[in-house]
Amino acid sequence: MSSGISDAKAATTPQEDSVPAVTTLPLAKAINRALSDELAAEPKTLLMGEDIGALGGVFRVTDGLQARFGTDRVIDSPLAESGIIGTCIGLAMRGYRPVAEIQFDGFVFPAFNQITTQLAKIHNRTDGAVTVPVTIRLPYGGHIGSIEHHSESPEALFAHTAGLRILAPSSPHDAYWMTRQAIASADPVIVLEPKRRYWLKGEVDLQNPAPDAFTAQVLREGTEATLATYGPLVPVALAAAEVAADQGRSVEVVDVRSISPLDDETIARSAAKTQRLVVAHEAPTFGGFGAEIAARVSERAYHRLAAPVLRVGGFHMPYPPSGQEHRYLPNIDRMLEALERSFAYATAGGR
């Protein structure tokens, strides 16, 4: 795989308009702004997806972009996910930078073959001669009260495939810059957009980029345990750390941000410092990506840990009906319970 934004056009030129350099935006609008800035900066960038043009997407993330850039740059595709990705692969091989939107996470599977057997492997198959800079925007996760196939968390399925980069922004600022960095990458990138957080507002600095998209970040310092998560659960983890602080516990929160490549060094460094690690995600714990994090941290920091790495996630079952999803999704109480189980182990010095 190539190195990412270092070998592509620097994505640092925001759209020229009256919006101040630092502005408050919902996460969805931050992505809209990122797409707009990339379309304006690079004529070879284009968007493709179901209902993304005239409608502006199911979640209105692409609202207004077709009116500004035209139907040749913001393309309403047929209802055919495999066709969307296949077309984007062909466009990328001809020098374009296509950005595909998959309407819902559960709809990505008709395109799974194109993504995992073609898109992810063309660069390696051609011995580096051909790059396919395709960005796939994938609204994912639950807590929107929707029906079957609309609230999946398939990140582990794609993380298992070498050749794909996978990002999971959790804030409007990260969503803006990680979207731009994904489009600038020479490699195919899946951006997991936490749909339950589309309306989360936050400051976006349009002139000062977020840290490298493919690194983890410590969002809250702590000394007694580390809580690592990504995407939609980051606000939940921060809230759990706040409750823990009220109970006299100091919990560090790490936003994983990049699932592939995984910045396990940052996570392991935090776990070694606090001696405890709890990993949380919405996907089922069985076979979930938290197991990879747990294994890597155990290898890197085993002798510094005072307790085994614990995981909090969904249950090993199909996603439940909307009336029961609050029982399925990790919440503050489940994170605090895992932290208490970790604290119940003896200290590292007493093992």
* Domain module tally: 2
How many strands appear in the DSSP assignment? 14
Strand content: 15-25%
- Amount of helix: 25-40%
User: What's the architecture of the largest domain in CATH terms?
Assistant: 3-Layer(aba) Sandwich
- The helix/strand series, from N terminus to C terminus, equals EHEHEHEHHEHEHEEEEHEEHEHEHH
The averaged pLDDT comes out at 92
The level-1 CATH class of the largest domain: Alpha Beta
Which strand order does the major sheet show? 3-2-4-5-7-6-12
Task: Give the uncertain stretches in residue-range form.
Answer: 1-14
- CATH topology-level name of the largest domain: Rossmann fold
Structural class: alpha/beta
Q: Could you tell me how far the N terminus lies from the C terminus, measured between alpha carbons in angstroms? A: 42 Å
Radius of gyration: 20 Å
If you had to describe this structure to a student in words, what would you say it looks like?
This protein has 351 residues and is an alpha/beta fold. It has helices spanning 27-41, 65-69, 81-93, 112-119, 122-125, 155-159, 172-184, 234-246, 264-274, 289-301, 325-328, 332-343; strands at residues 22-26, 45-49, 74-76, 97-101, 135-140, 165-167, 189-194, 201-205, 217-220, 225-229, 251-255, 258-260, 277-284, 310-314. The protein has two domains: 15-205, Rossmann fold; 217-346, Rossmann fold (3-Layer(aba) Sandwich), CATH 3.40.50.920. It contains twelve helices and 14 strands. Strands 3-2-4-5-7-6-12 form a seven-stranded mixed β-sheet, sandwiched between helices.
